[in-house]
Specification:
The complex is a heterodimer of chains A (about 110) and B (about 110). By secondary structure, chain A is an all-beta fold. In chain A, about 0% of the residues lie in helices and about 55% in strands. The chains are: A mainly beta (about 110), B mainly beta (about 110).
């Protein structure tokens, strides 16, 4: 099993609102990476957190932010939502991170912005 | 800038056939090349990870190869089954920025 829980699974918001998504990896996996998947742009890397520190960041505007807690749970926040933020947001866990080893993905949170 | 391309975008074959999915990348400075499958309504499942120093990896009926010099990777599926129906994605990890760059995927349908 993937050992990654993402909540909520589905979400509907309106433009201008903000949203927080949660990702909980199984115990011991300190790396959490976030990805956005859209029909037009495909999968894109958002950022990676390792031991509560952002270790890597993709090319997304500052409206996208995240954090990680001491229990490895991670949250992703999007402020001032735009229609184009409608997407499937995936998070993945791994032991050491950095994309250098197998990542295990959660089922994703599907966000619809109206 | 790394670009990853997967051809074809969709493929439909009868059950039992062997098939090859293609992945090409423009920048050979990669740390590894990864193959995933995505089932509708589900997240991604890692299939194979090939380090830049390796030429191939095998797992069951799956075999992935890597040719950095030509910027190509292939995923070979032997004796295809209806359960193999999914979208297959490849992703290249840059060896400097450690960010995965993804292909658009190949949607595979195995007909019973």
């Amino acid at each position: 099993k993937a050992g990654v829980t993402q909540t909520p699974r589905y979400l509907i918001k309106t433009r201008g609102q903000q949203v927080t998504l949660s990702c909980s990896p199984i115990s011991g996996h300190r790396s959490v990476s976030w990805y956005q998947q859209t029909p037009g742009q495909g999968l894109q890397f958002l950022f990676e957190y390792f031991s509560e520190t952002q270790r890597n960041k993709g090319n997304f505007p500052g409206r996208f932010s995240g954090r990680q807690f001491s229990n490895s749970r991670s949250e992703m926040n999007v402020s001032t939502l735009e229609l184009g933020d409608s997407a499937l947001y995936l998070c993945a866990r791994s032991w050491a991170g950095g994309g250098q080893e197998t990542q295990y993905f959660g089922p994703g949170t599907r966000l619809l912005v109206l | 800038k790394q670009e990853v391309t997967q051809i074809p975008a969709a493929l439909s074959v009868p059950e039992g056939e062997n098939l090859v999915l293609n992945c090409s990348f423009t920048d050979s400075a990669i740390y590894n090349l990864q193959w995933f499958r995505q089932d509708p309504g589900k997240g991604l499942t890692s299939l194979l990870l090939i380090q830049s120093s390796q030429r191939e990896q095998t797992s069951g009926r799956l075999n992935a190869s890597l040719d950095k010099s030509s910027g190509r990777s292939t995923l070979y599926i032997a004796a295809s089954q209806p359960g193999d129906s999914a979208t297959y994605l490849c992703a290249a990890l840059g060896d400097s920025n450690y960010q995965l760059i993804w292909g658009a995927g190949t949607k595979l349908i195995i007909k019973p």
